[in-house]
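Record type: ASSEMBLY
Status: queued
Input:
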Amino acid sequence: MKEQGFFYRDTWAEVDLDCISGNLASFKKLLPKDVAIIAVVKANAYGHGDVQTARAAIEAGAKYLAVAFMDEAIALREKGISAPILVLGATRPQDVAVAVEHNLTLTVFQNDWLEEAKTYLSPGQSLPIHIKVDTGMGRIGVRDKNELLLLERTIQQNEVFILEGIFTHFATADELDDTYFQQQLSLFKEIIGSMSGNPKYIHCSNSAGALRFPEAFFNAVRLGIAMYGLTPSPEIEPELPFSLQEAFSLHSRLVHVKKVQKGEKVSYGATYEAEGEEWIGTLPIGYADGWIRKLQGQEVLVGGVRAPIVGRICMDQCMIKLPEYMPIGTTVTLIGVQDGNFVSVNEIAKKLETINYEIPCIIASRVPRLYKRGGKIVDLKNYILQS
Ligand SMILES: *Cc1c(COP(=O)(O)O)cnc(C)c1O
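Status: finished
Output:
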């Protein structure tokens, strides 16, 4: 079996766990003591690695974890995570017994769901639930007081359900204009005001909300993107209350270096033609790694300077134009810092005309993730694997 941190291809991502801890420490300073942090580790922790991120978040003071689907929650349980986990998305009613077995908290927003789910639970079992309110996101959630009161009543009448939380999700917390945000917030306050009692957790803010709107803290916040050190949107970056430390970086090494002459071509379609004598380097990363074809022309860092990707990106490899001869084995940084130069996740997102959230998520599982503490590559027990 391969050891963790060992692989046969020189392409890897690094996740600096100190950045995740540091970002959460900054949040802890910002948030009042009674506001709990729910660390959002869905989608393999936005591509960073679920269990390592979950552990770092809990060590840094997060009280709860959140994922999108029950499969993700079970994966964390199987990797030894015992902290409470909220499944944010919809779960099938026939799967509630599995949720109970794994000690999970589910999101509920339909009365029929409760009626069906209870038939799968036996007396003595109990399922903690958070009710989702749709205040304007238009995704999932109860949309008015009557629907909420109906759910509340069914929960009260069935001892198998424990109403532990209620929450909503903002559609525009990362936009400078806060009109729609304020509408959602007042609607949420109005709807929860109609409940007969407050559940333990009331939460509505994602990263953007938590960074910008203390009036929406309630007693918990759900932190995703900012925990990973990425701004929720470029437009709110200037007004962030503290600086974020980007945890994710992507690296490779030159596997081939050659001199080409003026007029010689590179890659599929022979679309790139050398303008003169040039040094071309080959990297073992391609679109099957999530380094997609649209990144042709994007600059990477090699020898501390920027070098462009030339010719089409292949499934497993791509070529760069080197500033000068460089030896095989030279480290190339595709995302991250090298000798004081920086290619940020935001730069890649801009090139791909998308949001930064998408970038670490699309870096394929074929790319191994290495974890850093104190600048050194460590394993799950924090033992140093490489210095
Ligand atoms: C993904 C998600 C979050 C985290 O959002 P960020 O913008 O990454 O902080 C919070 N709440 C819900 C319901 C989500 O789906």
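Annotation: The mean pLDDT is 96.
Annotation: The chain has eleven helices and 22 strands.
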